[in-house]
Design a protein that fits this description.
86 residues; mainly beta; 12% helix; globular
Length: 86
């Protein structure tokens, strides 16, 4: 499994600069970190500048040193054991 195999897909990432777990789109993988796109982060950025739209979509680079965890879906059924009393 290679992280670069998931470019273009939605992943879950936990990183301090993002404020915890976020669902993001993985756009690129480099030796030093990853490029991501996130509507939630874009909303926060636009609100910070008090604007409603921007002419371009924002992408963000996260160095690996700031990433605590990355999770991506694989094509198998995921179960919540507690929902089944396990």
């Amino acid at each position: 499994m290679q992280l670069s195999d998931y470019v273009g897909q939605q992943i879950i990432i936990n990183a301090q600069p993002l404020g915890g777990l976020k669902q993001v789109k993985l756009l690129g993988v480099e030796a030093g970190g990853v490029w991501i796109e996130s509507q939630e982060i874009t909303n926060q950025l636009l609100a910070q500048f008090k604007i409603a739209t921007a002419p371009n979509t924002f992408v963000f680079f996260l160095p690996y040193a700031q990433i605590e965890m990355i999770s991506m879906p694989i094509p198998t059924v995921g179960l919540n054991e507690t929902a089944f009393g396990v």
